[in-house]
């Protein structure tokens, strides 16, 4: 049994070798340095690289399982993977704490006016009269009700917020006061003070949010995107901000990445940008390896993979 990782995993490499002494592990920094003879023999692949494309899959005749060390799997060639009967697992849940922390950093930065306070500091202004809004009783609406959204909604409820979830089926989900169908979203926007996108990228969600969506939101809405940038076209979010269809946005993901240095987003004063960093956590590899180990035990015993198996037809 040969397991190949297309990234170095630090102390997780020795952890894997010790726990599975009868399994051969090989670790490489990047797909570009993977020897062809190793690629042809590998049974299991650990990666999150865009280079794992159709050509790569075709050149991996013995591949049975891709352990994707990220949540989003939208770059994988699912049609070919399905044809070849390759199983895929992802790192769903690994980033839940990290993204939730960033989400509330953004929300509190806005509601507590921390950027304005810092500007006063720079100008040596001592303003003890400033009063800020509480997030208690604010309504936060999540586009997507997966693991990350559930963790964030749990935190929101600690703050005394009302939580609304929108998903494809309208099914009830723990930590959400109400849930609605994705197609009902336009009728629900007006209830929300904060709207957070956490939907995966699929055929159904690609460019899902149009100008009509943003126009249907409250003018005081704070929009936060820590899901997928392709949920909307860049010019659509630019128009929403310029025309004040929404009050402000915090964006960590973009339609095209890296963000073009000529992007209009850099010149708009009611948006704050981070460079797709909200999921970057120092413990990500350890948490993803926990998932991999649970699945590898089942795989070696010829049992079904038990955690984070990706539905090939749905793409997540």
Any key phrases for this structure?
seven-stranded parallel beta sheet; elongated; alpha/beta; five-stranded parallel beta sheet
Tally of individual helices: 11
Give the overall shape. elongated
Number of strands: 12
* Uncertain runs: none
Helix content: 25-40%
Main structural class: alpha/beta
Share in β-strands: 15-25%
Query: How would you characterize the largest beta sheet?
Result: 7 strands, parallel
Compute the separation of the termini in Å: 27 Å
* Arrangement of strands in the largest sheet: 8-7-6-9-10-11-12
| Rounded radius of gyration (Å) | 22 Å
Order of helices and strands: EHEHEHEHEHHEHEEHEHEHEEH
Average pLDDT confidence is 97
Protein name: Hydroxyacid dehydrogenase
Keywords: Coiled coil, NAD, Oxidoreductase
Domain D-isomer specific 2-hydroxyacid dehydrogenase NAD-binding: 105-277
Domain D-isomer specific 2-hydroxyacid dehydrogenase catalytic: 22-306
Task: Write the SSE topology.
Blueprint: E1 2-5, H1 11-19, E2 24-27, H2 36-41, E3 44-47, H3 54-58, E4 65-68, H4 78-83, E5 87-89, H5 96-111, H6 114-122, E6 139-143, H7 147-158, E7 162-167, E8 178-181, H8 185-188, E9 194-197, H9 211-216, E10 222-225, H10 234-242, E11 248-251, E12 271-273, H11 284-300
Parallel strand pairs: 1-2, 1-3, 3-4, 4-5, 6-7, 6-9, 7-8, 9-10, 10-11, 11-12
Helix pairs in contact: 5-7
Protein name: Hydroxyacid dehydrogenase
Keywords: Coiled coil, NAD, Oxidoreductase
Domain D-isomer specific 2-hydroxyacid dehydrogenase catalytic: 22-306
